[in-house]
UniProtKB/TrEMBL annotation:
Originating species: Oncorhynchus kisutch
High-level lineage: Eukaryota, Metazoa, Chordata, Craniata, Vertebrata
Pfam families in the cross-refs: WD40
Protein's gene: WDR24
Catalysed reactions, semicolon-separated: S-ubiquitinyl-[E2 ubiquitin-conjugating enzyme]-L-cysteine + [acceptor protein]-L-lysine = [E2 ubiquitin-conjugating enzyme]-L-cysteine + N(6)-ubiquitinyl-[acceptor protein]-L-lysine
Places the protein is found: Lysosome membrane
Listed name of the protein: GATOR2 complex protein WDR24
Length: 788
């Protein structure tokens, strides 16, 4: 700490000097308080109660108030305060509910003066009156506040907040009779000590417990409050109703708040958890701290300015068992490290960007708008105030408008309504959703659905081919529809299938190109169907789609013809010709090939080389179907990609359709986040039915319970106007049917609509038609009904 500079402050007759320094404590501190002349500080905690002297170079221990062989719980302190009028008077709030005063002028080792045990639970706060020596106020976990006269042995007034525990009490600095109290239910109450029966004013300050409050030392009506909602609010109490005039958003719950002396706009805060730093805020700039002290390694539990007229020294105690004196010049300034750029999205997708003029001055296409953009009146340039201690940065504003097409969300609504998530086989769901995405001009999503069908569809049972036998389509190595051409073998297959007829295969082998062609004599149509990619199987006039690849039924009406092998293993080599167009025997075969029709079948003898090649490719090179878990990592990354891009609709839809195939690969919290985001979007677009379907199809327990809450309707009888207590439609009081249509006077057995004002109703269509011509209730009660 030697690098820290030394500061000397003159305060009237006394002088404060020192530097940033610290000392180690015997135990964690819960609270600290400083004496009137700023020369000593008291540190209190569960296992520590000591007084330290503040010297220029270090802290010096002056007195240990925990005396005795067996210290009682009276020494276990939740709060401590040093009287600002009487230098020898201390008060502590004990965790056992006791309020203890200490007289440092006693000659004995035990400095305890008085003990008040009227509170039944832990006392959270004690506070001396700023001008009355003998007046002490306490706030307890039992919900009561008590005012003690130290000249008496019991409290003189008890204030009941009629609420939960009291977290802080503070006497007003300017109003003699007023004190403020903050509660765990988020309320703040103002009391007059002369009227203990009822508070003067109460208002809700925070959403959650209010942990601290502090009156402004100079401005009579300003009260600062801090709570668990991570906010510090400044209230103007001079008006009839408490008015919030400033609000500072912090990053953690606010445990302590203290106004900075001699600086009207500054206050210091520390957190109850997570954040260990101490922040000094300028309430006029609530989004970034004015200064930060980052020395503590654990939660800061107490802060106090060293002198009520000195803004340069701040004392703090922490759970890390250290006591610090912070010098303001050594504080870090976050604004010096902040980027002077701002980015904000508008309601309709417009983007506003503000940056230094020096960064945008080179943009010739940008049109400057001095004084703010007139097209966007919500943006304005703040006029510089020389009295502010802020770094002045002149910014330039640019607004980027989004096109009308990019703002439209019609595709989201149409997709949500047209998608099928259940009720059909997996392959049909994928095909249907792919078709919907393609029609909405979303090719990537459509391709994703097609690939999911290919990856996770269950193929038909594949038969194993014989060594010299080419089976039907089931023997082709499908490999999840990955073609032979992709494996570099250049295979093409053309099969002709006729229902009720035996299928024939005329096979020729091209030795030069190693190609196998299954030629269908009457094949004219060579277009392919199925996936959007390049099709690899052609089926003549009657084509098969991708599903037929996996579910083709074998016709057993005619037995396949076996191929016979020649007697000679190595036939004589044919005469080599100059530049032949094709092998001679292939040209002859092509010329002599008859046209097959009906039940004719042609048997062809192959050479051994041809047979060997044919046998080689007729065997699957590897397993014809990859297991579903093989694709799960890829699908998981794909779903994360869609979710990160903002398309939670695709992520949730795939999650529901795939079901158990992929659900175990994604943690429950991520699934719940996706579901909640998608359901929120559906409800914003008023797609209630789709939202309910998604909730029902979810397997997350936190999601499935969403449509099980608030499902009870309390209705009144349309005759006697009393609540119906039983579950049926017969009123147990007037014994009349409550579901009688006011238009046709028949019992409603389907959809029933009723007016919440007069309780009359009837068939939906009847009531709608009635209200088209009349606004009065059809039952004749005179009520003006409205159907929305």
């Amino acid at each position: 700490m030697e690098k820290m500079s030394r500061v000397t402050t003159a305060l009237g007759s006394s002088t404060i000097s020192g530097r940033t320094m610290f000392c180690h404590l015997d135990a964690p501190a819960n609270a600290i308080s400083v004496c009137r002349d700023a020369t000593q500080v008291v540190v209190a905690g569960r296992n520590i109660f000591k007084i330290y002297g503040l010297e220029e170079e270090q802290f010096v221990e002056k007195l240990n108030l925990r005396v005795g062989r067996k210290p009682s719980l009276n020494f276990s302190c939740a709060d401590v305060m040093w009287h600002q009028m009487e230098e020898n008077l201390l008060a502590t709030a004990a965790t056992n509910g006791a309020v203890v005063t200490w007289n440092l002028g006693k000659p004995s080792r035990n400095k305890q003066d008085q003990l008040f045990t009227e509170h039944k639970r832990t006392v959270n706060k004690v506070c001396f009156h700023p001008t009355e020596v003998y007046m002490l106020l306490s706030g307890s976990q039992d919900g009561y506040m008590k005012c003690f006269d130290l000249r008496k042995k019991e409290s003189v007034s008890t204030f009941s907040g009629q609420s939960e525990s009291v977290r802080d009490v503070q006497f007003s600095m300017k109003d003699y009779f007023t004190f403020a109290a903050s509660f765990e239910n988020g309320n703040v109450q103002l009391w007059d000590i002369r009227r203990p029966d009822r508070y003067e004013r109460m208002f809700t300050a925070h959403t959650g417990p209010v942990f601290c409050c502090d009156w402004h030392p100079d401005d009579r009506g300003w009260l600062a409050t801090g709570g668990r909602d991570k906010m510090v609010k400044v209230w103007d109490m001079t008006t009839n109703r408490a008015k919030e005039i400033y609000c500072v958003q912090t990053i953690a719950s606010v445990a302590r708040v203290k106004w900075r002396p001699e600086r009207k706009w500054h206050l210091a805060t520390c957190s109850m958890m997570v954040d260990h730093n101490i922040y000094v805020w300028d309430i006029r700039r609530p989004f970034i701290p004015f200064a930060t002290f980052e020395e503590h390694k654990d939660v800061t539990t107490g802060i106090v300015w060293r002198h009520q007229h000195d803004p340069y020294f701040l004392l703090s105690g922490s759970k890390d068992s250290t006591l610090y004196q912070h010098m303001f010049k050594d504080a870090s300034r976050p604004v010096d490290r902040a980027n002077p750029e701002g980015l904000c999205f508008g309601l309709f997708g417009d983007l506003a960007f503000a940056a230094k003029e020096s960064l945008i001055s080179g943009d010739a296409n940008r049109k400057p708008y001095p004084g703010g953009d007139r097209r966007y009146p919500i943006f304005f340039f703040k006029k510089p105030d020389l009295t502010e201690q802020f770094a002045h940065v002149s910014s330039a504003l640019s607004v980027f408008e989004s096109s009308l097409e990019s703002k439209r969300m019609d595709w989201f609504v149409k997709t949500a309504r047209l998608y099928l998530l259940s009720g059909k086989p997996f392959a049909e769901l994928c095909d249907h959703n792919a078709k919907v995405a393609k029609e909405l001009n979303r090719p990537q999503v459509s391709t994703t659905w097609t690939m999911l069908r290919i990856m996770f569809s269950d193929p038909a049972n594949l038969s194993t081919p014989g060594p010299n036998h080419i089976g039907k389509l089931g023997t082709l190595p499908l490999m999840n529809s990955f073609s032979m051409k992709e494996m570099g073998m250049g295979t093409e297959s053309r099969l002709d299938r006729s229902k009720g007829e035996s299928r024939q295969d005329n096979i020729h082998l091209d030795l030069g190109n190693s190609l196998i062609n299954n030629i269908c004599p009457n094949a004219e149509n060579e277009e392919t169907e199925g996936s959007e990619g390049q099709a690899e199987y052609m089926f003549g006039d009657a084509e098969l789609d991708d599903d037929d690849l996996y579910s083709m039924e074998h016709d057993n009406q005619a037995e396949e013809q076996e191929y016979t092998l020649p007697q000679e293993a190595f036939p004589l080599r044919h005469e080599i010709m100059d530049n032949p167009l094709a092998p001679e025997h292939l040209q002859q075969d092509k010329a002599d090939s008859p046209q097959a029709s009906g039940n004719e079948a042609e048997v062809m003898c192959l050479t051994p080389i041809e047979s060997f090649s044919l046998i080689s490719i007729s065997q699957p090179l590897f397993s014809p179907h990859l297991p579903a878990p093989f694709f799960c990592p890829v699908v998981r990354e794909m779903l994360s990609h869609y979710a990160e891009q903002g398309d939670v609709q695709m992520a949730v839809s795939v999650l529901i359709v795939l079901g158990d195939r992929i659900r175990k690969e994604i943690d429950d919290l991520t699934q719940e986040h996706w579901y909640m985001s998608y359901i929120d979007l559906l409800q914003r677009f008023e797609l209630w039915n789709v939202s309910n379907e998604v909730i029902k199809l979810s397997t997350c327990s936190a999601i499935t319970c969403l449509n099980q809450t608030s499902t009870t309707l309390h209705v009144n009888c349309s005759n006697c106007k009393r609540p119906m207590s039983n579950r049926g439609w017969i009123c147990d009081r007037c014994h009349q049917c409550a579901s009688v249509c006011a238009v046709c006077h028949h019992v409603v057995k389907g959809l029933f609509v009723w007016c919440q004002g007069c309780s009359h109703g009837g068939h939906l269509e009847h009531v709608k038609n009635w209200l088209k011509s009349s606004s009065h209730c059809p039952a004749g009660c005179g009520h003006l009904c409205e159907y929305t």
